[in-house]
Design goal:
Alpha-Beta Plaits, 4 strands, alpha+beta, four-stranded antiparallel sheet, NIPSNAP
Length: 112
């Protein structure tokens, strides 16, 4: 299992557009076999930083999604929304492996 952590530097004057972008990707990640854990928007503190987390069963499954997203019309439309509105200034992507409690050992990659 692989979790993707995205850190976005966003335009704080375009939160509504970025929210629209995020809602689209929550559905699109699920459409392509992932589990989205949500977008986390600025509240207190920095007004130009947002985060997203989503999980795929494996890095290979994530790569299939990435390839498919380049030609899927709905994904292309979401990419275009961000490009056209410039609601995202930049982003960083990290790949993480989740650790579960001892009660969920069977679900943990380390338990395999």
């Amino acid at each position: 299992m692989i979790t993707v952590h995205l850190r976005y530097e966003i335009d704080p004057d375009k939160l509504d557009v970025f929210t629209e972008y995020g809602r689209a990707w929550i559905r699109l990640v699920a459409k392509h076999g992932g589990t989205h854990h949500g977008y986390f928007m600025p509240s207190e503190g920095d007004s130009d930083e947002a985060f997203a987390l989503f999980t795929f069963p494996s890095l290979a499954a994530y790569e299939i999604y990435r390839t498919a997203s380049k030609t899927d019309p709905e994904c292309v439309e979401a990419f275009e929304l961000a490009r056209r509105t410039q609601c995202i200034r930049r982003y960083e992507r990290r790949f993480l492996s989740p650790v579960f409690s001892a009660d969920a050992e069977g679900d943990s990659p380390a338990a395999r």
